[in-house]
Amino acid sequence: MFGLEKPAGRREPGGSGGFPKMASVGDFNVLSSSIPATKVELSVNLLDRDTFSKSDPICVLYTQAIGNKEWREFGRTEVIDNTLNPDFVRKFIMDYFFEERENLRFDFYDFDSKSPNLSKHDFLGQMFCTLGEIVGSQGSRLEKSIVGIPGKKCGTVIVTAEELGCCRDSVLMQFCANKLDKKDFFGKSDPFLVFHRSNEDGSFTICHKTEVIKNTLNPVWQAFKISVRALCNGDYDRTIKVEVYDWDRDGSHDFIGEFTTSYRELSRGQSQFNVYEVINPKKKGKKKKYVNSGTVTLLSFLIETEVSFLDYIKGGTQINFTVAIDFTASNGNPSQPTSLHYMNPYQLNAYGMALKAVGEIIQDYDSDKMFPALGFGARLPPDGRVSHEFALNGNPQNPYCHGIDGVMEAYYRSLKSVQLYGPTNFAPVINHVARYAASVKDGSQYFVLLIITDGVISDMAQTKESIVNASKLPMSIIIVGVGPAEFDAMEELDGDVVRISSRGKFAERDIVQFVPFRDYIDRSGNHVLSMARLAKDVLAEIPEQFLSYMRVRGIKPSPAPPPYTPPIHVLQTQI
Predict the structure, then answer these.
(1) Which family does this protein fall into (predicted)?
(2) Each residue of 182-198: pLDDT tens digit?
(3) Which terminal CB of the chain, N or C, has fewer other CB atoms within 10 Å?
(4) What domain count does the chain have?
């Protein structure tokens, strides 16, 4: 029902994972050109042969822009003549981010001529879904009816997602250099290497810096690890540019020279092919007898394949989503437009927007789409007792709501029946989810709790203790702060700067992500884009939190169910 590596590539090569961080050479943002969390290959099969038996079908895939909702063609399969084989051979390769909602549309046409213009061909129907829906289905295999022609059965389509192998590979490399140019007046040089991957537009993005080796023209750098995505975005033939510099204390590092290579070349390992001449173009232009500014040699190249978040999802791990909403009096009277809980008939309030933005993405990873929805800080009918853990649907034995729309409905119904009160206590709802998470520690389920709150927390000590205890369990906590309050305490719970502790015990993992809603309010009123940004920021850390739990516990992904094979039709001929 729910769960998840910080999409790999979010942290890469600045020096995590036990490799030296090079603050002395200046930090850089590996994500200046965003690396996809991973790439997936989509295969399309038509199930109901009878529907397509007399046609020559083609599948056209469209993706939807977040802002203006415009559909753009992403690609086309080949045409299948008379559906002799219902499986399209041509695949679609897409970037996948857990934290983004990618709407897809598959259109099917009967191709009658060679014209690429779709309006000249018969429309056979279409199927809508999200990329998360495909990935989150059992075995990452989604089966859905084709719709679009009123009164006609249009058949069924199966879309299967397969993570591309290169996306989970990392390489461990080591380099040395010989006879580099001497740059320092009083000594030799202090060399270091800077690696850049090339982008589609021909520009370069920095992806790794080695450490500095002091006072030598023949340095041997430490081995370093980098993901194949960060190094070349999974494209083995893409140019990788390596620059050699002489480090200077004031930051004005001297350029020694550069060379280019590719992942494919590097993968040959230590050989004569991986000894590179370091060329300084300025020197080469000025000096007729210039040969090079030294050589750089690859000493070792080792590929490591890492288990990914999608391996677990494909193996059947469910992500269970629970929402907890703040019903304290500081939110203001729900019938007043100034209230954070105001039920505006024309647009969602901040609570509704945050819930929908996060929930609509997570629900794709929960097979039964049943979500517990809780409230805290209200007085309940009939006796007015204060509760910090009540079911929004009024049924404490079964607090589950169907889909995000069901959660929204229960939330609005609660606003009409409970009295906003206080104080703001988080520990009861965290402990509620922790009880469930403690009962399934085998990796088959992972729990995500979304807390939406307006205020300063009243039970800080108890909440810290709850989080420290929960950090040993398969769960993550997202906190969205709405309204104008100061959220300093929430930053402390987030634990990004200082790991949270309680009674001298530190949290085993960082499991809390906090964001203030006000940072995402779009002044132009375009809530679609701003809510997509909010979801992206709060969900981006969940894959890494998920994987850190699995790694610490030594839990491996379950094998995926066997791939779908279409039934073999035996043709019978009448004599």
Answers:
(1) Belongs to the copine family.
(2) 876 667 889 999 999 88
(3) C
(4) 3
